[in-house]
Design goal:
This protein is of the alpha/beta class and 512 residues long. It is built from 15 helices and 24 strands. Helix 1 packs parallel to helix 10 and helix 3 crosses helix 4.
Length: 512
């Protein structure tokens, strides 16, 4: 904090409140104050600083219910995309070792996984990213303050340090990019005391052991997938459907593959209580909503993946009149990321209707910084944002689901081209490819504009990222047919697809 006293700033004591004032440099301490040091907030702050703005970014992480803490960088870096992808990779390597025997590798003795070794390596990498973010802010002359920020008015932010000291900062514009945190169920005895969330799983020093994952979102399935892949007994408890909001045919393929992979599923079940036994095990009681029967089993860990809540409650938004969506607690935003209060902007996971994805937050943050500095008028385009679910069989998509396309255009207004294919790398390893599938959802008439593309298979994200570019260029089915494939790849199956669902013909790819 001593750094705050140097340069053009000075501290002025006002009762118990420290006020950060600016000497002869304008009406405000800063041109821009960003509350939230996640991917989006950091991107926005650095972009604004590069464009000549005086910027401060406030970031403070409240420990999880179980006491887990982490550094600068937000969910993606610390408890999301990065550690998740690395643990997913650990699981894929386990499968690759099994495949290797079929390819002639002589592997003797049992194969086992050591959680502590993996966790330490991943956590060390995350810490290096935390440090890297701090260095980047310093290099770009962004003031980083490890304080918890809340709003006083449309130009004033109050910050509180871990020690309880308060300060105020003023800025021409304020940006909120605080993201969200995992929910805990509030009506299940023992859930809070004995459960963990995605805020904890990546920072465990010891293996979670036999695990019950409650929920069927992409977070739930990804965590269950890598836990199964490293050899842990894992069950997913699903209240209704898996991957709500995604194409449901593809969701079914993902869970079918996981089931064959070894993940157990308790469908149409809801937990009633979690009790810690004298042995240390967690006894979970649940109800099968289909039959009404009650069941019990014991687990070493219970991971709640039942949605996320926006970090908006402690910001003081209600006092300022910032409009929130009552049902979600998220901020209602204009197309330019503006809130209902002038000079206050927001983006990322806290925005109502915005995709909860790191790349969209990063891009939205950069574009907002350019608009606030007068360097651009470009708005964020939230249509056709690609994404990947890193389950054991990866699922990636861009554009509309088949259900949404049918809803918008009518069943007779769309044409769905599809194919079941077998990745070449699966053949020698004698792996089941029953769920390796792709479909291209198009308008039925005219040039057959592509509305959605869905792909399950190895490296699904890498495959789909390239095709996402085509969506920005108005890709049509004829463009696919005109494209020369790269052989032999899984991606080439997309440009070869020629059988429609409407035809009823077998969509299984034969030959090479």
């Amino acid at each position: 904090m001593a750094a705050l006293c140097r340069g053009r700033h000075r501290w002025k004591r006002n009762n118990s409140l420290h006020v950060l004032t600016r000497n002869l440099t304008g009406n405000y301490n800063y041109d821009l104050v960003v509350i939230g040091g996640g991917s989006g907030g950091l991107a926005c702050s650095k972009e604004a600083a590069q464009l000549g703005q005086k910027v401060a970014v406030l970031d403070y992480v409240e420990p999880s219910v179980q006491g887990t803490k982490w550094g600068l960088g937000g969910t993606c870096v610390n408890v999301g995309c990065i550690p998740k992808k690395l643990m997913h990779q650990a699981a894929l390597l386990g499968t690759a070792v099994k495949d290797a025997k079929k390819y002639g590798w002589q592997i003797s003795g049992p194969i086992c996984h050591d959680w502590a070794t993996m966790a330490e390596a991943i956590q060390n990498h995350v810490r290096s990213l935390n440090w890297g973010h701090r260095v980047q802010l310093q290099d770009k002359k962004v003031k980083y303050l490890n304080i918890k920020g809340s709003l006083v008015d449309e130009h004033t932010v109050k910050g509180r340090t871990k020690a309880g000291k308060e300060m105020t900062l003023t800025a021409k514009n304020i940006v909120i990019a605080t993201g969200g945190r995992p929910n805990y169920p509030t009506n299940i005895p023992g859930a809070l005391e004995h459960g963990i969330t995605s805020d904890d799983i990546f920072w465990l020093k010891k293996s979670p052991g036999k695990t019950l994952v409650v929920g069927a979102s992409y977070v739930a399935l990804e965590c269950a997938g890598f836990l199964t892949g490293i050899g842990l007994d894992t069950t997913v408890m699903v209240r209704s459907i898996a991957l709500r909001g995604f194409d449901q045919q593809m969701a079914g393929l993902v869970t079918d593959y996981m089931d064959a992979y070894g993940t157990k599923f308790a469908w149409k079940c809801v937990p009633k209580s979690v009790e810690k036994l004298s042995s240390g095990a967690l006894q979970v009681t649940w109800t099968d909503t289909h039959t009404g029967d009650e069941h019990k089993d014991t687990y070493d860990s219970v991971l709640w993946a039942v949605g996320r809540a926006p970090e908006t409650k402690a910001l003081g938004l209600d006092k300022l009149g910032v409009e929130l969506k009552k049902e979600t607690g998220k901020i209602i935003l204009g197309s330019d990321e503006s809130t209902s209060v002038p000079n206050i902007y927001a983006f990322g996971d806290i925005g109502e209707g915005r995709p909860e994805l790191t790349p969209t937050a990063i891009k939205a943050g950069k574009l907002l910084a350019r608009r606030l500095t007068g360097h651009s008028t470009e708005l964020m385009n939230y249509d056709n944002v690609p994404t990947t679910v890193f389950t054991p069989l990866e699922y990636a998509c861009v554009g509309l689901s088949e259900e949404e396309a049918e809803k918008r255009h009518g069943k007779d207004g769309i044409e769905v081209y599809h194919a079941f294919y077998k990745p070449l790398e699966f053949i020698v390893a004698e792996r089941d490819a029953s769920q390796c599938y792709l479909k291209v959802v198009c308008e039925r008439g005219g040039e057959q504009k592509i509305l959605g593309l869905h792909f399950t298979g190895p490296n699904a994200g890498e495959v789909t990222q390239g095709f996402a570019l085509g969506f920005q260029c108005g890709a049509t089915y004829s463009h696919l047919l005109q494209t020369v494939g790269i052989h032999p790849t899984c991606a080439e199956e997309v440009i070869k697809v020629n059988i429609t669902k409407r035809s009823g013909l077998d969509a299984t790819v034969t030959g090479c």
